[in-house]
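G.,

No rush on this.
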Amino acid sequence: MPRSAPTPLKLNETERRDLQQIANRHNTPQQIALRAKIILLADEGCNHREIGRKLSISRDMARLWRERWLRACLRSLG
């Protein structure tokens, strides 16, 4: 059975800049920096497996944070 591709994620310039700052700031807690990196990689078009490999995390964790980001975006629109 073929697997479906993850839902595309597109950041605007402000979101991308803010997430890059969070990911690169030395005083950002590592969990928060990791979440920012997951979203940035998803924005670049990486799938869950690629994100997992690049960040040494599980595909499930990559999927979880992509889905949470997308849900938060939908809530802010509605």
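When you get to it, here's the other one too:
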Amino acid sequence: MSKGKLVDDLTLLEIKLEVAHEIGLADKIRKYGWSGLSAKEAGRLGGLITQRIRKMKKEEEKAKQKKKEA
């Protein structure tokens, strides 16, 4: 993972697919691909992915902090 990335490419793909499934876009993506999404759908998906990544990063930092304290 490069210094600027919060998650690696495989993890990002897993998150994208998981979020797409949760909001009901998985079938559309399977049928038409990522380019088949409307701007609204892509924006919603991107926003939820960003939230998920930030939450993961925050939890990771908390775990590191607890480890330092112990």
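The chain has one domain: 9-69. The mean pLDDT is 90.

Enjoy the weekend,
O.
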